[in-house]
């Protein structure tokens, strides 16, 4: 055996001893000399000193890496162990996710059906039948504008008004009648019919009353004080129906705007319409908004002749400030007027470039509609984005052609609804065998008319096995009694509705919320480097990531990155094309579908929400105090609470104990939320300042990301909860040199949770144990 080999072998012996015991170097010296005397030829004292020096350096480096990894994992555990509990039972210990089959997740669709059951139903809900296409012909030009908003964000805003109409089914309001009764345009009957067909009678009446109240206040010169009044039409799940409603309301009430958020349509006063009425007659304002809404190419709109130059300047300024990206204005003298006091007209026309971005009409879209195929995806121990990437490659589409209602766990067997665009059912069925090799299955394959959206589900059903059940340390109570007590307690009192650790990349060096924060601060290069931060593992993926950070060689890294890492390869391919500059990294992030880009930003918002809940419960406990936000709709979905249903608690309501803790909500960060008016609201502002987001608008135009925010209940309850204790026999337990057969307890627990609730968080409350 060569002497160099023996020396390396001794080096590894000492290194292993360091890993196992972390003893001081003084204990190694005698062992080292004995090993040298036994198996090595004599070597010079100088060589020994050099060898020992590098040995210690290597040990220190390994020790630092090991401690760094321990510190990262500990930091992650600390983040979640510091979260609060709402119940006061002792709990118990156990192991979850021993295998994927121990954690089964089945999505529940909006009709309350489990998606793993055979079904011929579409995956979207139609509340009412749309009018026949010929009834929509005169409104088609209006529908497109709203569709364009929906494709780029969750927030759809329509500020352009159309033609108005008199509602024959509405008790007349004198002021409103006097203003718009004389303006009857062709097609107004269709808007009345559309509203009547899509809205129930009560909602239609309330909408008309809301419009009448707004018009009365404006005509009486009464200023609207406080927040802008609004009226909610509720959630309309079908995208085409929402577009039609937006158009019909603008046609009937040009002094109102419609705002869409998470499929809810909210009606508000159109302040731009009111502002223009201060400059021109209401008739001109009405016709101008109708012109804008028509978007007829090469058309012009002319205001009435005006001799006042300052007044014309004010009209020019208003139109260009509000609609300058769509239209341009010019003044022309009327030929028949005298040169001393000429009448001048302001002419408005559309900018040529604006037409390139207009959406096709609804009828054109219907005529050239994409193919949509719905299916149920079963996957086992595979990340969802990896599964989507694999399916995209096999079907010859891109990941953004897939839509889904929610993300699912990796280490689990999960069932979820999906829709793929540009793929026929027959084509999807042809790859069933290939998909099975990847521990996936596709079934319930059927054609549908539209894609899915995030949150379009009722919830999830869980079947979970918790193994190796034990009492908490120093707890001598009967384990069965402890388990029964814990389950009943959470069943009755609920659990703190935290976002689960899997949302942040549990156990990783860089968590998804850190990438989200970088994106919110428009630090796209930093976000890319965070994404490629390697773990302390020696495998092809982490070697490729390490190479990229050291060299910024996207092409070389692409050759090292394994094929199954679809996201990493897509990002590297874009970086190779566009370069690792700020602009290049922006383009690279577009290699991810919108749902994936927004996922990172949502992860940051989720982290802040978790911290906010802990602060809220630590500060006020289970009392509902002045300045809290509460939900007035007991049946509202998690994170789908309309703003009109969120109420600020007053001092009188606190004294009267009007609300309970399960009604309290906290905002998830975004541009369209209000904060609590107490210490919790102050805490939000301090945290945003801490993270450098005090001026953040939660809109990232360069990445086409808009984050409107939402409200989330701080407590949730599991539904349909059932459980069964089982004994696992045949496990060898070593005790005092002998082997005995001992039975260990396992718990099979099943329950349903609302959308965006986490089973691991519910189990944490039950077990009083962090995973």
TrEMBL record:
Pseudouridine synthase that catalyzes pseudouridylation of mRNAs. It holds the Pfam family PUS7L_N. Keywords: Isomerase, Membrane, mRNA processing, Phosphoprotein, Transmembrane, Transmembrane helix. The chain crosses the membrane at residues 42-60. Residues 494-717 form the TRUD domain. One of its GO terms (biological process) is mRNA pseudouridine synthesis. It comes from the Eukaryota. The keyword Repeat does not apply. It comes from Capra hircus. GO terms for cellular component: nucleus. The keyword Transmembrane helix applies. This is Pseudouridylate synthase PUS7L. PANTHER family: PSEUDOURIDYLATE SYNTHASE PUS7L, TRNA PSEUDOURIDINE SYNTHASE D. PROSITE patterns: TRUD (PS50984). It catalyses: a uridine in mRNA = a pseudouridine in mRNA. Belongs to the pseudouridine synthase TruD family. One of its GO terms (molecular function) is pseudouridine synthase activity. InterPro entries: PsdUridine_synth_cat_dom_sf (IPR020103), PsdUridine_synth_TruD (IPR001656), PsdUridine_synth_TruD_insert (IPR011760), PUS7L_N (IPR056963), R3H_PUS7L (IPR056961), TruD_catalytic (IPR042214).
